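Annotated sample (chain length 317).
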Amino acid sequence: MHRRHTRPSTGVDGELRVPTAIAVTGADLALPAQDERTLPAAVLRDIDRQPLEQALLAVQTLVEQHGHVVVVYSRATPPGVEHRLRTIRSLLESDRIAFFRPDDLPPLAVAVLARQLRQLASCDLGPGVLASAGRLLTHYLHAGALLGSLARLDRVPVDLKAHARSWVPGSQFAVLAHPEPRVVRLGTPDAALPGPDFGTSLLVARGQLQSDWVGTTLAPAWQARGLREAPLPAESADWWGTGKAIEFCAYLPDLSVLYQLVASVRQNPCHWCGLDVIGDRCVFCSAMPPVHGELQPYGGRRSYGDPQPYGRRLPVG
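Output written by the structure step:
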């Protein structure tokens, strides 16, 4: 078991290192702290509605205070928000601002991932490694929702038969968006979703749908070690195509396990900005490793390794 995570975060000169800021685009994506070491999220609330000068100053202040900023947001975030963020980074001409938008994670799972990064931000991980860790940790999230309608669901493949059944009054569907898309109708023999094969906690966010299925059926089937509730993110209705939803996400809650996963992966300096990163692309400057001779798909090495105790080979993407 690694124990470096129990020490204060320090730089090479022994001085206390200012933690990298983990920012989210809405207060409902800033989940309550998981433990006493979880750092608060920087909430960029209504950043697309503020005067540009005000939004620019807010982000600039974050960079000056923390050195680096990682902004985590979902695919359902309004385009105006993403456009404003990229405008700000361009105006600041800064390679200390990283954007991370996991396309196949629903909003509640994005909030969970942001909190995991907030947990890790208290550790002795450099900003490049911390920002890169987001792609690694997504592979350990199982996210979905219980829906009252599939009529407007377009982020998960749904066949015509399931669409037709969704018009039947009272129908409810269990949908897994990540890591393996799956849609099943409750009340049928195959009404089960594939879950994690390692210990997780379950977070639930209830919308305008009445059901106890997540707590009475899904949680025991997934052998969840605990179940907590959170408000449904505002972006969830857009992501799922309906407000009649109960969103859920199974995740690794323990900082020691999260740290072990990240620390077990090989780190390499970015050839452009010099930050230590994991994977094949720097999240801050977007530089890819230069090609030297016959470079194998993962740089001739394990990019994400086979960390224990969850020893499955993971893709880089």
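Annotation: The two ends are 27 Å apart (CA to CA).
Annotation: The mean pLDDT is 84.
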